[in-house]
UniProtKB/TrEMBL annotation:
Keywords: Membrane, Transmembrane, Transmembrane helix. The keyword Transmembrane applies. The keyword Oxidoreductase does not apply. It comes from Pseudazoarcus pumilus. The chain crosses the membrane at residues 6-26, 33-53, 59-81, 88-107, 113-130, 150-168, 174-192, 204-226, 232-253. This is Uncharacterized protein.
Length: 264
């Protein structure tokens, strides 16, 4: 019982603490940084850790492969929301983004492709969606922090962790992994930013999330590869290192692209 209570306490504290730190960093350094950090495995990573502890390494490895497959679903959400945001208010944008995520996520749960095949597809999808994002929108001031914004992000993160770890066994590893990437933080960030500062700001935010998903993909691919063959702690250390390396590389690529085009 004591170990179960300790694990529950970790679920209730780890994710909110990470979300708190990411939110403050995003507020300090702007939409692009906020997008990148929110796409880092700040929620999916702890979910996979708890799944590994409760369901075992093989289950968590398969769930990590499911999360890799879901990266394309998140990219669909970001692209559809961005284009709808250029013409419509946030409720319709959110509905369209969720519909796009749902279709691609459902296809991911039906797939029998390897994690490496999905990773290759993710790279193509992310690059394509980044290039297809709306551009040259009229910039607006950054949003002021909305009341209960931070608290809502933390509650949503904890709720997703508790829900997936509770349902993991009945959902199965692939579905649990796909659900781990459901855009909970993305929803809070995009809706609040869209309401406060309009389409231009939210497009920059979502583009940052797409760039950040290279780190998410690298984290989950590494975890799926290492969990069956190395101890749990070592697998997660390797996955975090892979995510940090991918993030550093994508930042360099993004900056080079920005210098060439003169656009964010």
């Amino acid at each position: 019982m004591s170990s179960a209570l300790a694990l529950l306490a970790l679920k209730l504290t780890l994710v909110p603490a990470i979300i708190y730190a990411v939110t403050l960093a995003g507020r300090r350094w702007g939409a692009r940084v906020a997008g990148r950090l929110s796409a880092f495995p700040v929620v999916a990573g702890p979910i996979l850790l708890f799944v590994a502890i409760e369901q075992g390494a093989p289950f968590a490895a398969a769930a990590g492969a499911g999360t890799v497959a879901a990266v394309a679903a998140f990219a669909a959400y970001a692209l559809v929301y961005s284009w709808l945001a250029t013409r419509f208010a946030w409720p319709l944008c959110l509905l369209g983004g969720y519909a796009a995520y749902g279709v691609v996520a459902w296809l991911a749960t039906q797939s029998t492709w390897s994690v490496w095949a999905h990773a290759a597809i993710d790279v193509v999808v992310l690059v394509t969606c980044i290039r297809a994002m709306p551009r040259d929108l009229t910039a607006q001031p950054p949003p002021r922090p909305m009341r209960f914004d931070l608290q809502l992000r933390m509650v949503c993160g904890v709720a997703l962790v508790l829900l997936i770890t509770w349902l993991a066994e009945s959902l199965g590893p692939r579905a649990a992994g796909v659900l781990a990437l459901f855009p909970v933080l993305g929803t809070v960030l995009t809706v609040f930013s869209h309401r406060a500062s309009g389409a231009a700001f939210v497009v920059v935010l979502l583009r940052g999330m797409l760039w950040g998903n290279f780190a998410m993909m690298s984290f989950c691919v590494t975890l799926a590869a290492l969990l069956p063959v190395v101890p749990l702690a070592l697998a997660f250390v390797g996955a975090i290192a892979a995510a940090l390396s991918a993030n550093a590389l994508s930042i360099r690529i993004q900056r080079a692209a920005h210098r060439r085009s003169g656009r964010a």
